[in-house]
Amino acid sequence: MREATVTFEDNSLETSTRNSEVPKEELSDFPGQNTIEYIANRRTSLRARYYYGTIFLATNLTTWIVRDYGQKLFLHSHYLNACGFGGHDCFHTMGVLRVSFGCFIFFFFMLLTTIKGTKLYEVQNAWHSGFWPAKFVLLAASITSAFFFPPDFIQLYGEFARVGAGIFLLLQLISVIHFIAWWNNYWMPDEERKQSCSLGIFVSTISYITSACGLGLMYKLYIPSSSCMLNIFFITWTAVLLMVMMAVSLHSKVNRGLLSSGIMSLYVVFSCWSAIRSEPGCERCCPQTQVNGHHVVTVLSFLIAICAIVAATFSTGIDSESFQFRRDEAQEDDDIPYNYVFFHLVFSLGAMYFAMLFISWNLNHSTRRWSIDTGWASVWVKILNEWLAATLYVWKLISPVLRQAKVTDQEAAVQQTNIEAASTEP
C-alpha cells in the first residue's frame, strides 16, 4: 500500500512537471483555451465592416463635393502644376477621378496587406480590424496624393475605371442572383420541417403584380407618342424577358416555382425604369421636371441614391460565398468571418463604379449639380446590365438540367458500349 501511494504521488509530480514545461503555443491548441479571444476577435472583425462602409460613404460624399463645388475649393490651385491654370483639372470630371483613384489605392492596399489572412489570430486580422488612426492617415494621404498626378495619368485611370466598374456590376449581379436563389430555397415547402409555401406564393404574387404595374406605368409615363421607339423597345423587351423567365422557371424539367422569377422580375423592371430615367431630361420621350437649385426632392433623391449604392457595395463585399468554387470546406472556430481580400476588392472596384456614376460614364463631359448617373452612356450600361441579369438568371435555371442530361447521355453511351462488348464475346 505504501508503495502504491508513492508511485501515485511520483506519477502526479511527473505529470505536473511535464505540463509546466509545455510551451504556451501548445497549450493554446487545446479546445476551449482561446474561445473568448476568438469571440472578441470575431466581433471586432464584424464591426470593422461598418467602419469601412462609413469610410466608403464619406469618400464618395467627398467626391460629390469636389465635383459640384470643387471650383470654389480649388480657386487658387493653379499653383499646383497637376491641376492646371485655375485648378480646372482638379474638379468636375477630373476631380471625381482623382478622389476615386485615392479611394481605390487605399482599398487596394488593404487588399494586398490582408491577402493571406485566414485566421483570427493572424496579424492580417489585427490590421484589418484595428489601427484606425493609421488607416485614416493612409486614406487622407492616398486622396491627397491623387491631386499631384498629371492629368494624362488620371485620364488613363478613368479608362481603367470603366472596366473596373463593369466588373463591379457583374459581381453585384451574381450576388443578387445568388440571394434570390437562396431566398427561393428558403421558402420552398419542406415536408420534414412541415414548412408551408403560403408566404412564398404571396411574395411571388405581389412581385408579379408589381412588375406588371411597373411596366404599365412606364408605358404611360415614358411613351407620350408613338415616335418614342427606343422607350417602346426597352419596355416591350423587358416584358418579353419577364415572360421568358416565368416560362423557364415553370418548365417541368426546371420546376423552380414563381418566387425566384417574381423577385428577379422586380429587379429587371427596376433596371429598365432606372435606365429610362437616366435619359437626358431635355428629351421629349422622357419628360422630367427640371429643378433648379437645391430642391428638397432632388437633394433627397440624390442622397438616397448614394446610400443605396453604398449599401449594395457593402452587401456584395461580405457575400464572398457566392463566388466560391468549392462549398465543401468546413468553417472552423478560428476562421475569419468573411473573406477580407474579396471585401476590399469589391470596395476598390466600387470606388471605380461610383466615379462612373458621378461622371455618367463619360470622361469628357461634366454633369450638372445634384445629379448622378444620367446620360446616354448610363442608359445603355443599365440596359445591358438588365439583359445580362436576365440571361444569367435563365442560365442558372437551365444549367443543372443540361448537366444532368449530359451525365445521362454519358451513362447511356457507357451502358451501350458494355452491351456491345458483351454481345461480341464468344
UniProtKB/TrEMBL annotation:
It holds the Pfam family Serinc. GO terms for cellular component: membrane. It is a multi-pass membrane protein. Residues 8-20 have a biased composition (Polar residues). It is found in: Membrane. Residues 1-26 are annotated as: Disordered. It comes from the Eukaryota. The chain crosses the membrane at residues 50-67, 95-115, 136-157, 163-187, 199-223, 229-250, 257-276, 296-318, 338-359, 379-398. Signal peptide: none annotated. InterPro entries: TDE1/TMS (IPR005016). Keywords: Membrane, Transmembrane, Transmembrane helix. Belongs to the TDE1 family. This is Serine incorporator.
